[in-house]
Specification:
alpha/beta; Rossmann fold; SIR2/SIRT2 'Small Domain'; 2 domains; 9 helices; binds adenosine-5-diphosphoribose; Ssirtuin_cat_dom; protein-succinyllysine desuccinylase activity; histone deacetylase activity, NAD-dependent; transcription regulation; protein-malonyllysine demalonylase activity
């Protein structure tokens, strides 16, 4: 799988993983656009936007409550664990579009959540925010200030947290290897991260069972699932 680039990855120092829903698929969390995609049953624009939240907060919260239940029951898979283990051998940072916290659960310590976290909740008006691991009995849940609470995630049309995005761009621009795992690379600005890496002459590797819009820009594409490919990739890196 990785023989062709074995020597090229020999002396990489800074490795960035850009991950998407596909890396959590083998933990039982459906992707958005893949064949088992979440969006197949729902219209994303009716559930993951600020307008949808104010138009029908109950529906949006029903969807997020269901997803929260799924996430709380999910465990990191071999792909998450391989990335976490790699921290013993190289400088690793994970730039994830996922909101499920599985990279952190697997032991990764350098994780930027580009689209926020479904475990974190914030008030839609005041500055209250907290990690809440229990289910809400009544929805939409209310803040002590009386306004609706919402998942601390980035909805379509909302900007990414500026401090997080700035750090992500800097890391992508400084790495010498970027591994893009389980993402269709259709959502911006996350899908610009490989461009920043390429501008720094980083090696680009894509791990995805399906082709993506940027597959032809990659130095190596591994048509495999992440739970199968990542442990193999890590063992090649460890040999160097
Ligand atoms: N291993 C690796 N990749 C996989 C696996 C797997 N087991 N299963 C599916 N995939 C791939 C699919 O082929 C697809 O290319 O994962 C990708 C998932 O793509 P999307 O469903 O579009 O998810 P993602 O790229 O993370 O979406 C980006 O869009 O909906 C918004 O905010 C949401 O963060 C999300 C963003």
């Amino acid at each position: 799988m990785f023989e062709t680039i074995k020597d090229q990855i020999g002396d990489v120092k800074k490795i960035i993983f850009v991950t998407g829903a596909g890396i959590s698929q083998e933990s039982g969390i459906p992707t958005f656009r893949g064949k088992d995609g979440l969006w197949r049953n729902y219209d994303a624009m009716k559930l993951a936007t600020i307008d949808a939240f104010y138009e029908n907060p109950k529906l949006v919260w029903e969807w997020y409550n269901e997803r929260r239940k799924n996430v709380f029951a999910a465990h990191p898979n071999q792909g998450h664990k391989a990335i976490a283990e790699l921290e013993k051998y190289a400088k690793v940072m994970v730039l994830t579009q996922n909101i499920d916290g599985l990279h952190q659960k697997a032991g990764s310590t350098e994780v930027l959540e580009l689209h926020g976290s479904i475990i974190k909740i914030k008030c839609s008006v005041c500055d209250f925010r907290d990690e809440i691991l229990t289910e809400f009995s009544e929805i939409p849940p209310l803040c002590n200030c009386g306004n609706m609470l919402r998942p601390d995630v980035v909805w379509f049309g909302e900007p990414l947290p500026q401090n997080v995005w700035q750090k992500a761009i800097v890391s992508a621009s400084e790495c010498d290897l970027m591994v893009i795992v389980g993402t269709s690379l259709v959502v911006s600005p996350a899908n610009t991260l490989p461009i920043y890496a390429k501008q720094n002459n980083a090696l680009l590797i894509e791990i995805n069972p399906e082709r993506t819009e940027m597959s032809s820009d990659m130095d190596l594409t591994i048509r495999s699932t992440s739970a199968l490919a990542l442990p193999k990739f890590i063992s090649v890196l460890k040999e160097n």
